[in-house]
Amino acid sequence: MNFDNLQDLVCVVIKPMSDMDDADLSNDCAEIDEEMQSISMPFSFVEDLRASDSGFAVPFLTALQNLETMNFGSFADAARNVMRRFGMYEMDALTGLNIANNLRDVALSIPSGIRMRKFDFDVSYNSESFFCDNGNAKRDCGSECDWNSCGMTDEDKEKDLSCEKDECANCEAKWFEETATAGKVEFECRSCDFPDSIENGYKREDWGNGIYEAYYECNDGFYLKDCNNRALCDLNDVSIIRTPSCIVNECPLQKR
């Protein structure tokens, strides 16, 4: 059965104890059958795991099958030895309560009566946990977004912005703004459309972030005017405000 709430668990424990009221407890409970001396609390749960989590969960659950042969009473024996070692075994004297030793014995007797009768689990494969509707494999994108990848003005940075990564689209980041009127709406990052080439030159794809700056090199035989290879973008109106120029032999620093 499944324990849907705490009340179910309490009933499982209390009902057998109530049944014992009318039982014959003489001769150390020898007249009571085994079923009445034990409380069985089976339970089950179903959980969806990601592929990365299953790499830990499956070996862990497999190891839990060893509980079927574990002697839980050894925990009580270890606790008794620790209490004796540190002079805490005589709880009456330690606490000043006459019933402390009895409470100790009750507490330490509980593990001795615990036994895992059967432990079993089953793992099933759910394709929806690994693949997207578009056929792409789901990726573990992490929780943090690169805020430098989204062009923002100083005014934008004051807004209530958030980012979500699409595990089905190569972890592409989508940005959102929380507004007072429309709630959560998509936020459009700003960036300039830098040209792939300039006159007698080309853009370096491995330099700059392509949002508010880009870098260029000149073709053979041409050199950067004023040794400037950086193009800049004004994110306020999304316009390019400076572009390098490639000219013939006017740069004192020769290209390496």
In summary, what is this structure?
The chain is α+β, with helices and mostly antiparallel strands. The chain has helices at 6-19, 26-29, 34-37, 51-64, 73-85, 91-95, 100-112; strands spanning 161-166, 172-179, 183-187, 197-198, 201-204, 213-218, 223-224, 230-234, 239-242, 246-247. Helix 5 (73-85) runs antiparallel to helix 7.
Topology readout:
Layout: H1 6-19, H2 26-29, H3 34-37, H4 51-64, H5 73-85, H6 91-95, H7 100-112, E1 161-166, E2 172-179, E3 183-187, E4 197-198, E5 201-204, E6 213-218, E7 223-224, E8 230-234, E9 239-242, E10 246-247
Antiparallel strand pairs: 1-2, 2-3, 4-5, 5-6, 6-8, 7-10, 8-9
Key structural traits:
single chain; 256 residues; alpha+beta; five-stranded antiparallel β-sheet; three-stranded antiparallel β-sheet; 7 helices; 10 strands; 26% helix; 17% strand; elongated
How can the largest sheet be summarized?
Answer: 5 strands, antiparallel
Determine the structural class based on helices, strands and strand pairing.
alpha+beta
Structure annotation, total helices: 7
What Rg do the Cα atoms give? Answer: 36 Å
Q: Spatial order of the strands in the main sheet?
A: 4-5-6-8-9
Poorly predicted spans: none
What general form does the structure show?
Answer: elongated
Give the N-terminus to C-terminus distance in angstroms: 76 Å
Number of strands: 10
Strand content: 15-25%
Explain how this protein is built.
The chain is of the alpha+beta class and 256 residues long. The protein is 26% helix and 17% strand. The protein contains seven helices and ten strands. A five-stranded antiparallel sheet has the order 4-5-6-8-9, with no helix packed on it. The protein has a three-stranded antiparallel sheet with strand order 1-2-3, with no helix packed on it. Strands 7-10 form a two-stranded antiparallel ribbon. A hairpin with a 5-residue loop joins strand 1 and strand 2. The model has no long low-confidence stretch (mean pLDDT 79).
